[in-house]
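INTERNAL AUDIT FORM
Audit reference: QA-55
Scope: verify that the stored structure record matches its stored sequence.
Auditor: D.O.
Record contents follow.
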Amino acid sequence: MPDLRRSMKLSIVFGLIGAVLLPVLYEIYANISTTVGLFFVICWVFFAGVKFSGLTFKEALIGITCTIAYSGVFGFIFALAIHPAIMNFLIRRSVYFRLEPKAMLEFVAICFFLFIGMYLLWVIRFALCKVMAKFKSNREMAGSYIENAFNDEEDK
């Protein structure tokens, strides 16, 4: 139960951070650099994915799914609130670029697939833990076989 509680706490924290971050990163993507905007999205997804990867399958699945849902739904709401402020700031500083709907949907789709990468991070960590456990087990078994190979008591 503590892992589920931790999972939900992480999903709320990362979901709300993502909800505020995504509209800002969208404006960076649209007005500054697509590479920089996507780099920050990847960094955020990687950090969140690493945090969730320490949980069991069920807790990680629930937490990551809730994080994606919170970030998407609340991100849209925050975008409606943040967009005018960022647009005014950018217009005062230089020029504001508005993306066409196709490019906007492309950003959303890219972010969604990057968020799916959180599941991939969990799978990678799970696989590495299993491989390390197998190596440890094999090492212990090999040590046991070596000890028993030179044991003369069994030959009598």
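Auditor finding: record pair retrieved intact. DSSP finds four helices and no strands in the chain.
Action required: none
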